[in-house]
Amino acid sequence: MSSYETYNRIFKLGMQSALEYRMDLIFSLLSAFFPIMIQYFIWSAVYADNPDQAYFGYSYHEMIMYTIFAAFTTRIVMTHVEHEMALDIKDGHLNRYLVRPINYFSYRFFNLIGQKMFFNCLMVCAIFAVLICYSIYNGTPMKLERFLLFLAAVILAFILNMLISYAIAAIAFWLSEISYFFEMTGLFVIIISGGMFPVDIFGPWVNAMLDYSPFKLTIYFAANVVSGRLAREEIIAGIGMQGLWIISMYILSRILWRIGMKRYLGLGG
Amino acid sequence: MEIIAVKELSKSFEYYTKELGVRNSIKNLLFRKTLIKEAVRDISFRIDQGEFVAFLGPNGAGKTTTLKMLSGILHPTSGSVSVMGYNPSERKNEFKRKFAIVMGQKSQLWWDLPAIESILLNKYIYQVEDVAYRKSLDELTELLQVHHVMNVQVRRLSLGERMKLELIASLIHKPQLLFLDEPTIGLDIETQKKVRDFLKYYNEQHKTTIVLTSHYMKDIEDLCSRLILISDGQLIYDGNLKEMNGAMNQTKVIKLKFTERVKLEQLQTYAGIRHAEDYQATLEIPKEQVNAVSRELLARLPIEDILIEDIPVEEMIVSMYQRKRAQ
């Protein structure tokens, strides 16, 4: 018997428990549309005077497409799992994982994939539908390749974001009142990841700084892959960068958790 | 065979205090004076295989802290712990497969799913073979009579049912050693009894070593051949419950019922009146005087009923705690 079976089981349990809450699922689907509506009206107002003008390098259509794709992608990659992990640390629920022969991170990871599986598939379908509508509306053929690259990018973005959450959650080893901290970091991470609007808005200086962080590689990158703003070479390079950041964040979060765990176990530190 | 060996075990925590009022809260925001609490101080004991041992002590005495050190959740500040030949704080998987811990107030069951899902997950986590799994599951569900709730979402179950399922989930891999942290807390009397009967049977049948913490005297009297008493982080008694009676209890209680009203003055020749009212009285008498005193009482007073008892364990323990604090 291998640990594969264990984590497969955890994955399935995550899926089952997500499906237990049908209304919750419906609401979370609906709530994905509201930000899109708001953004649609804002950008329509911004572009109203000069429909042909490009702001921040985006034409009106591009901006709307970005908004739609970014909203869906945000829903896919943002997990809020840092809240659950922080509560595990704060309330001592971590104990029940420590005493069993399982790895906490893997447990959480497979559970999360299970929980998000159904919802994320729906979101990907929604994006696919938008792409089809867009190509019909424009009379341009849809590029399947771009969609497949998007799938790869969004899966990596999900993993990368999960690792960012995992690293952030380690803060709970030191701070016990962390709910506002996560509220703050949650919103902040969404903004600098391009979940609200393209990161280009912040200007070249901030962008250059963000190039040295993993955030742009989550929502901003995936949304631009699917919207067609990036050339194939840029996409491949971006996916490579995602891979590198995944490895670095994995190492960083492991180190943070190791130090935090020593504190949790009462080793001082 | 020795299964747990603890030597000069200590654990201290840092904490801080806050005086009353907003001003002190602000002061605390900027500056906190850390204090050290010694939760466990210099405890040593050994437990053999198959024993059923109770950890007893007031809230905050260090029982749970000790259990946590035994199961590898906490690192000791000093001293040594050996459990089944392992050092728990290394948290080796091999070690984890040999024991289980049930924390009364912290569930390992998936809240939104039927318990059978969590139990099956533990089968995989602990790598239990199919045949052994089937056998354990059948035995445990039979003993605890929970067939009918196996497929109900955990959050819809009563506390008692949840506790039973928690026990099944913890025992599915047949651990050699089971830690129970207040397993009967909050349960009704009938369920408490069922859980107790189960534990007793399981311990006898499978020779599983069980270490239990509880506040309920009944748990301990019914189940545990051995008692480890902890107060203020220190071990104050380790031994047989009945022997404790002998060793600690130098006095007996005489309960009297009278046929007619007896005045207090008539009793005042005896030291140790605990309680006296018109038709009844309770006296605490040194053991060696019990015979003489009771003979005299029968001769002198209009007695309907006389009862000579040991001091109840609870009282004895409370007085031991108090003695400890006074020291």
TrEMBL record, chain A:
Superkingdom of this protein's organism: Bacteria
Keywords for the protein's UniProt record, in alphabetical order: Membrane, Transmembrane, Transmembrane helix
TM annotation in the entry: 21-43, 63-81, 117-137, 149-175, 187-206, 235-257
PANTHER family on file: SLR1174 PROTEIN, SLR1174 PROTEIN-RELATED
Descriptive protein name: ABC-2 type transport system permease protein
Organism: Paenibacillus endophyticus
Automatic annotation (TrEMBL), chain B:
Signal peptide (UniProt feature, chain positions): none
Gene Ontology terms for molecular function: ATP binding; ATP hydrolysis activity
Keywords for the protein's UniProt record, in alphabetical order: ATP-binding, Nucleotide-binding, Transport
InterPro entries: AAA+_ATPase, ABC_transporter-like_ATP-bd, ABC_transporter-like_CS, ABC_transporter_ATP-binding, P-loop_NTPase
Superkingdom, natural source: Bacteria
Protein name: ABC-2 type transport system ATP-binding protein
Domain ABC transporter: 24-257
Pfam families reported in the protein's UniProt record: ABC_tran
